[in-house]
Structure formats: structure tokens, C-alpha cells
Amino acid sequence: MAIQTVGIIGAGTMGNGIAQACAVAGVKVVMVDIAQAAVDKGLATVSGSLDRLIKKEKLTAEQKTAALALIKGSTNYDDLKSAQLVIEAATENHALKLKILKQVDDMLAPEVIIASNTSSISITQLAAATSRPDRFIGMHFFNPVPMMALVELIRGYLTSDATHDAVKALAETLGKSPITVKNAPGFVVNRILVPMINEAFFVLSEGIATAEDIDAGMKLGCNQPIGPLALADMIGLDVCLAVMEVYLEQFGDSKYRPCPLLKEMVAAGQLGRKTGRGVYTY
Ligand SMILES: NC(=O)c1ccc[n+]([C@@H]2O[C@H](COP(=O)([O-])OP(=O)(O)OC[C@H]3O[C@@H](n4cnc5c(N)ncnc54)[C@H](O)[C@@H]3O)[C@@H](O)[C@H]2O)c1
């Protein structure tokens, strides 16, 4: 089944980014959120982002008009019925996602594929809340969606090949480079990235090198665009700590022990850029 219209639940950071990526690729979008203000904000974000692409001469004004015309913003879930794929990109809250998924599962035609953009909740568990676990999959986009090439396609225990292949084809239509991943905490990228950041805090706390030298080492020696400690400041130290705590609990393996320095800094309220101070001062 070709996917001609994509429904998106949530018009926030990820929802409007996915909407933009679809519309620029010529795929119709219905983007729903709970309040009109959230829908309007999402649409305005897309418009502003397209303006920046025009300034950089990566897009023409005509292409912007055409892309915006493909996005319908709505507060009515019924509008999702025109989609062949519905991507849930609402707030990261387990109970909320289960409620949303049950609601759309009851409403959508049986052949419609449902995907979730969750960063941390089990795709198999979310799929089990619907009547179509074979037509359910994780589509983990990266922020900012229009710039980032990767989409992790997470196969739940019962996700069918047909579902995987249809969603993979759509990701490629959007110009993305999908990778296929089995359902597991952190999927692939965050499973490797966040423990690396945690290890950088151990190296810092053991006094092995300064923060600047740790970051310079990983940039110059591994060609990473940003050092792990500067990246922790961007992500938020509290988010990094929460992810490590989930890994420790879910894998039951002490290799995921959060670094005590990371815990101390979070306890002190030094969460990174968002509080003006983390490993570095902003
Ligand atoms: N921000 C990231 O870097 C990132 C990266 C990958 C995945 N994710 C995942 O994407 C999802 C969305 O994250 P975000 O950063 O866009 O959050 P966000 O807070 O920017 O946006 C969430 C949106 O969902 C809306 N929403 C809440 N309840 C809703 C409902 N019942 N129906 C429709 N809309 C509803 C909110 O009003 C809000 O506009 C989360 O699952 C998150 O884990 C986030």
C-alpha cells in the first residue's frame, strides 16, 4: 500500500518537523494537536523553518507555498482518517500514549499503519495496546527532523514485514536513511550515545582530563562534531541521568551505573544549557 497521506499526532518539536519533511517531499499531511494554539504554533514553526531554507537557497518561495499547502492542521482526530500511516509524536508519557493509541486504533481503518516516535517506551508494549500489532512500528526520527538523515525503524515483536517495508519506503521518500532495529531500550543510537556521555563524566570525575580536553579528544580523535560533555549540556544532564537509570533498571546490568558526578550535578540543578550552567557555563 502506497502511503500518500501521513497523519501526525502532536504538532510539537518532532510532530511539526516530521510534517515539514513529509510536505517538502510532496507527501500530504494531517497534523493534529489538542489545542488550536499548538497547531498554529506547529504550522508557524514549519513556515519559519522553510523561510530559513529559502534564505540558504535550498528551497524556492514556490516550493514553500506548495509544501505548506500539503499540511492540514487540525484539532479533530477524525481528520486522521484520510491517512494510510499515522505517526504518534505526542508528549513522552506512557499513559497518554496508550490512551491516544487506543483511540486512533478504534477509529482508523484496519489496514492503516500506526507508528510511534517514542524515544523510550517499548514498541511491543505500545503495539499490544492496539488491535493491529502487526501494523504497528516505531519510527524514531531525530531532532531537528528536517536536518537529520536518520530514522530508526523499530520492529515490535509482531511487526510484519509488509509494515516495515511500507514505512521504510516512506522514510526513503522523505530523503531519510532508515536503519532497522529490534525493540530494546534505547534502540541503537541512544543505547550507545548515552553510556558514552556517562563514561565521559566518569573520566572527568576521575580527574583524567579537563572537560575541554575530553571534548577536544573526542572531536579530534573520533571526528565527532561535538564533544560528549558539551552534548550532555545540550541534551540536559537530567535527561542523560534518567536514560541511564532506565537502562540500569531494564537491563539489570551494572555497566549502566550512572556516574556519581552526573547525579551530583543534577541534584545541584546544573542541568546544562537550559539552566545556564552544566559542565560549562553559558
Ligand atoms: N525532542 C526530541 O529531541 C525527540 C527526539 C526523538 C523522539 N522524540 C519523541 O517525540 C515525541 C514528541 O516529543 P516532542 O519533543 O515533539 O514534544 P513536544 O512537547 O515538543 O510536543 C508534544 C506535542 O504533543 C501534543 N499533545 C499532547 N497530548 C496530545 C494528544 N492527546 N493529542 C494530540 N497531541 C497531543 C502537545 O500539545 C505538544 O504540542 C516524544 O515521544 C519524544 O520522546 C523527541
Explain what you see.
The protein has 282 residues and is of the alpha/beta class. It has two domains: 5-182, 3-Layer(aba) Sandwich (Rossmann fold), CATH 3.40.50; 191-273, N-(1-d-carboxylethyl)-l-norvaline Dehydrogenase, domain 2. The chain has eleven helices and eight strands. The protein has helices at 13-24, 36-55, 61-69, 94-107, 123-128, 161-173, 189-205, 211-222, 228-235, 237-251, 260-267; strands at 5-9, 28-32, 71-74, 85-88, 113-116, 136-141, 150-155, 177-182. It has an eight-stranded mixed sheet with strand order 3-2-1-4-5-6-7-8, with helices on both faces. It is globular and about 60 Å long. The model has no long low-confidence stretch (mean pLDDT 97).
Quick summary of this structure?
This protein is α/β, with parallel strands linked by helices and 282 residues long. The chain is built from eleven helices and eight strands. The protein folds into two domains: 5-182, NAD(P)-binding Rossmann-like Domain (Rossmann fold, 3-Layer(aba) Sandwich), CATH 3.40.50; 191-273, N-(1-d-carboxylethyl)-l-norvaline Dehydrogenase, domain 2.
